[in-house]
Every structure is written in structure tokens, then in C-alpha cells.
Specification:
Archaeosine Trna-guanine Transglycosylase, Chain: A, domain 4, alpha/beta, binds S-adenosyl-L-homocysteine, Rossmann fold, 395 residues, 20 strands, Transcription Regulator spoIIAA, seven-stranded mixed sheet, globular
Length: 395
Amino acid sequence: MSKYSKVVLKKGKEESILRFHPWIFSGAIDRIEGGVEEGDIVIVHASDDRFLGIGHSAIGSIAVRIFSFEDVDPDLTFWCNKFNSAFNLRQKIGLTSRKETNVFRLIHGEGDGMPGLIVDFYNGTAVLQAHTVGMWLIRDLLAEAMKIVLGDRLNAVYDKSAKTLPFKAQIEPADGYLSGIQTTREVMEDGNRFLVDWEEGQKTGFFVDQRENRKLLSEYAFGKDVLNMFCYTGGFSFSAMQGGANLVHSVDSSAKAIELTNENVELNFPGDKRHEAFIADAFDFMKEINNKYDLIVLDPPAFAKHKNVLGQALQGYKRLNTRAFQQIKPGGVLFTFSCSQVVTKQNFREAVFSAAAISKRNVRILHQLSQPGDHPINIYHPEGEYLKGLVLYVE
Ligand code: SAH
């Protein structure tokens, strides 16, 4: 008799699980044998009693998130194997031993077979963000497994789940160190230094997912006047400066973000007069930028967090991109992104292309961008592909 409760699916509802999709929707469940509380580990069976997987239960339309399709005991060794496999992937793609980059994503939810968990590695500190109660309840076990797998590379594990856990859950999470203490906040990405504030900052403190796209931008920046809209900690701005930009303007509506951007500019390019940062709303700032910039970056926050606001979000992308197309200098280059998971690649293209049509400019695609290898997409969970970008040449 297993110590975990048993979730039995309705007849025929096992199909997607047999194709390794890790989510079980509440409508697919026939019955639960034994009591279940949010975050409990449950064993999932088909209607004919075949074993399907082990996962964390949750209140909501996604009722179970599977973390193992094999009948195993999810103990310390099991989680060590998960971290090992994730670390090996990062090692294979060359992220763990580069002197000029010591920040990467270690765990990307379903992409690493750990639905509900994000871990970013910042030069010795792992910042853990649980999006499910199930992952949060085992956070100490996860921290222990990480310590075993990363060894001396790891100084501390910081839990930053208070804002990402479902608000309906009957728990009182508080952010803090699970192990170790704060050492350095300084990280390096492609030779640029950043101060990361995982305690107060957005997400885990830094947008690791734009690393490759920032590098590409640096190759386009030489001699250009650059606008980095939605700059947050200034990532794209340093890449532009590193690439030899003539002028860089960073804009964000958050005063804290602008403070971080200025701090980071001082760290990398002390006293460099090419850079200026502005606290402003994107739509206001972009009212009058006619012929001012050769290169514009638009990396807004997720305009749509749920499917029911998709239409509104697409209008937002269209309005924003229209302003850029209408005003960018002839022969300019636009880097435009969407990080909303519910906005598909096709949705995003349509919004951007109709913005181009409104501006009546001749626009061509130079690159189609996505997320880097440390944000892997599980092919059985295509929902994991969230970052979409286009680099466009505007005549
Ligand atoms: N490009 C950044 C990440 C952007 S995150 C990087 O590479 O790190 C999105 C940013 O948009 C946040 O910093 C947020 O403060 C800012 N923001 C949100 N709404 C805004 C608005 N209406 N105008 C300007 N900035 C906004």
C-alpha cells in the first residue's frame, strides 16, 4: 500500500499522459482514493488501474503536475538525479565553466521535468522560485539536493516564492535563505557585470532568458543611437554600449529599475556619457521620438497572463510596435519581444505585422528569436515555449 493518495482518471483520459504531457486537468479525474490537500504528492492511475505517474496536486484547473512517469520513491536521491540531469545539460551547452558568464537558469519547470519550479544560479547563489505548493513544501529537500549536486559551486539557496505561490493556498510563505548566507550580488554575463537584487527585484532578480539576444544586439550596435525600452536592470543597454553604440537611452516606468540600471552602468562603464536613463511610461516616451533612434528594443512585461485577456494584449503589442515602426530612422533595426506564454508565435507575428502595415514602412525579418538552451522546451509540453522575438529591418 503506497503512502500517497491515488488519483484515478476517467476512461480514455490517460492519452496525453502516455505522451508525457505533465499536466492533469481536474475534469479528467474520476476519483481520488485517500485524502488530498494542496501540494500533496499523489500517484496517478488510468481507469484500468495502470500506473501513469507521480506528481504534485493543486487546487485549480491543473489538478496534478507529474514529475515522474516512472514508479519511483521521490526521495533525496530522486531529486539529486533531477538536478544532476539539469546541471549536465547546462554543462553540455557550455554555461557552467565560462569565466565571463556565471549566471544561468538551472531549473526551468516542465523543461527540466520539474513542473512548478524555477531555479536561477547567480554566481554561487541559487534563487528558488516555487510556483506550486507541492514544490514549496519540499523546498528544504530541494536545497539539500542542490547542495549535493553543485558542491562547492553553491554558497547559498534563497527561496523567493512568496509572490509566485497560488494565493488561494492555506500557507504563509516568507522569502529567505534556505541554506548559506548572502555573499556577493555581483554576477557576470558575457563580460558585463550586474548587481542582482533577488530579495527585492522582479522575478528571481534578473532576466536570464535574454542572454543570447543581448549578445546579438551588441553586434548591431556599433555607431548607433539606441533606445532600450522596458530596460529593467539595463541588460540590453550594456550590450549596446559594449558593441560600440553612439548613444544609449534606457527607459522604464519603475524608479527602482532605473536606479539599478544606473548602478550597473557605473559598474561597467564608469562616467560614460553615452548613456542616459529615464523613468517614464513607454507609451508616453514613444510619443515623440521621430527619427531619433537607429535601433530600438521593445521588451515589455507579459501583457497577457491569462487567455481571457489575449485580445487586449495583442492590441497592446500592436500599439507599441506601431509607435516604433512609425518613428525609427530609415534603415533602422527593431528588436521586439513578447514573453507572454499565452501569446503564440503566430499571434505575436500578426500583431507586429499589422503594426508594420499601419506605419506603411517596408519591413523585413532579419532574425527570429526565442529562449536560450538553459530555458529548454520539453517537446511534450509545447506550452513551455514562451519567449518570442523578431529582429526587423525597417526601410
Ligand atoms: N529587458 C529587460 C527585462 C524587461 S522586464 C531585461 O533584459 O532585463 C519588463 C520591464 O518593463 C520591467 O522592468 C517593468 O518595470 C517595465 N514596465 C512595465 N510597464 C511599463 C510601462 N508601461 N512603461 C515602461 N516600462 C514598463
